[in-house]
Write a structure and sequence with these properties.
- The protein is of the alpha/beta class.
- Helix content is about 30%, strand content about 25%.
- The protein has 14 helices and 26 strands.
- A hairpin with a 4-residue loop joins strand 20 and strand 21.
- Helix 1 packs parallel to helix 4 and helix 6 packs parallel to helix 7.
- The chain is globular.
- The structure holds uridine-diphosphate-N-acetylglucosamine (UD1).
């Protein structure tokens, strides 16, 4: 799929099932390395980032294959601790292999990890935390070398609740000597999913779901069967798609308990939402309402991953909205393309935009430059008059199993080429 063609102006109607979460699946896949055993991961999304993680695990010697029920990974045959593949530089989540491999092998050699081009994305918090556990780092050209003669539990305080750093500490700590206390841990639900997987494998972790995690040492880990939770970001994308394009949809399995700030914003924009065990029912307003200030923040705040999608909807809202991005400094890359579709967006410094809602966007040829920005352009296409073409779909495929199929199930006129 190279490009997505959207005939906009069609109100959405129908039901779609929400896929498994990318941000929960990737660290869980890395964690399977720690067990030296076989795990069956159910509801694992079939997305490019998961395929990339599968190749990395195979490169390390794991036996990995898809079964009818999910993805099976056997890490008993891990042979090496060096990852050479390009997949590392293309995917920031490969960074969680650092904690997992340090735990499993005591040593790692990897390329500097990449991910979407949405800011500087330093890794100092990861390195400082792991150093406190006895890991020594060296840089050799583009490669990062990590080694721990003795991996020890530690009392670690994160100065910022970094999702990736929290994951790395948890992954390294489960097989370390001595307990680890992690204060200032990220509260994102994907951290809880990782801890729950490890608990199913036999790890003892207290404080799951809070900012203080205690990881006890000395537990033997076994393989297990585990289901990845539904993706709150994909659910949010389709939710805002409906708020912007109009109509009413049912988002089956949407994890609404973890979507508080997202549901709140959708309601402020005029959506009516009904939650149940089965998911979220969304009824769109005639036209979305502007919101004074949308501010991204660590969970339970509004997720940075949905900022661009919210921006697309704000572009057609009645009134002026302000959006402040506090997590990544380069997440307004979608602005230029939205302007080409008729959006009126003023940049006020690097982290704030003011959006003057217009009554209609018009079609254009636009280019996805990163994952969530790409999804935001598809949402903009649903709301625009005429045919919008979104290129650069390899970014969207990193996190959405099939965004075209899903929006088609909701009645949108979307095709891929
Ligand atoms: C971030 C998001 C996460 C999202 C993911 C994918 C937050 C808090 N985290 O996770 O919800 O799913 O992107 O888009 O919203 N930082 C440092 N040094 C470090 C690590 C991070 O300065 O060592 C800074 C980053 O530059 C950024 C902030 O901390 O400003 C958030 O980082 P972090 O949570 O670690 O990012 P991800 O794990 O990529």
């Amino acid at each position: 799929m190279d490009s997505i063609h959207i005939q906009g102006g069609v109100a959405l109607q129908g039901k779609v099932r929400i896929q498994g979460s990318k941000n929960a699946a990737l660290p869980v896949l890395a964690a399977t390395l720690l067990t030296g055993d076989g795990s069956l991961i159910r509801n694992c999304p079939r997305i490019a980032d998961v395929y990339a993680m599968v190749s990395l695990l195979k490169e390390l010697g794991c036996s990995v294959y898809w079964q009818e029920k999910g993805l099976f990974i056997d890490s008993s045959t891990v042979r090496r601790e060096e990852i050479c593949s390009d997949a590392v530089t293309g995917m920031r989540s490969s960074l969680c292999l650092l904690g997992a491999l340090i735990g499993r092998c005591g040593e790692v050699v990897m390329e500097h990890p990449g991910g979407c081009v949405i800011g500087r994305r330093p890794i100092d918090l990861h390195l400082t935390a792991l150093e406190q556990m006895g890991v020594e780092f060296r840089e050799k050209g583009a490669k990062l070398l990590a080694k721990a003669d003795r991996l020890c539990g530690a009392h670690i305080i994160l100065p910022f609740p970094s999702v990736g750093a929290t994951e790395n500490v948890v992954l390294a700590a489960v097989l370390a000597e001595g307990d680890t206390v992690l204060e200032g841990a990220a509260l994102e639900p994907e951290i809880a999913a990782l801890c729950q997987y490890l608990q199913c494998c036999g790890a003892e972790i207290d404080g799951v779901g809070t900012g203080q995690l205690v990881i006890r040492s000395g537990r033997k880990l076994y393989g297990t069967e585990f289901a990845i939770p539904a993706d709150r970001i994909v659910a949010g994308t389709y939710l805002f798609g409906c708020i912007g394009a109009g109509g009413s949809v049912f988002l089956e399995d949407a994890p609404w308990e973890d979507m508080g700030a997202v549901l709140e914003l959708a309601e402020h924009m005029g959506g009516r939402l009904y939650t149940s065990q089965e998911g979220v029912y969304v009824q769109a307003p005639n036209r979305p309402l502007a919101v004074d200030c949308i501010r991204t923040a660590p969970h339970p705040g509004f997720p940075t991953d949905l900022q661009s999608v919210a921006l697309s909807v704000a572009a057609v809202a009645e009134g002026q909205s302000m959006i402040r991005e506090t997590i990544f400094e380069n997440r307004f890359r979608v602005v230029e393309d939205l302007r080409r579709m008729g959006a009126r967006i003023e940049e006020q410094g690097v982290d704030v935009v003011r959006v003057h809602g217009v009554s209609k966007l018009h079609s254009a040829e636009v280019e996805a430059r990163e994952l969530r920005g790409g999804a935001a352009l598809v949402v903009a296409g649903l709301m625009a008059q005429g045919e919008t073409v979104v290129t650069g779909c390899q970014y969207i495929n990193r996190g959405y199993e099939n965004i075209c199929r899903d929006f088609r199930e909701l009645g949108a006129r979307v095709t891929s080429a």
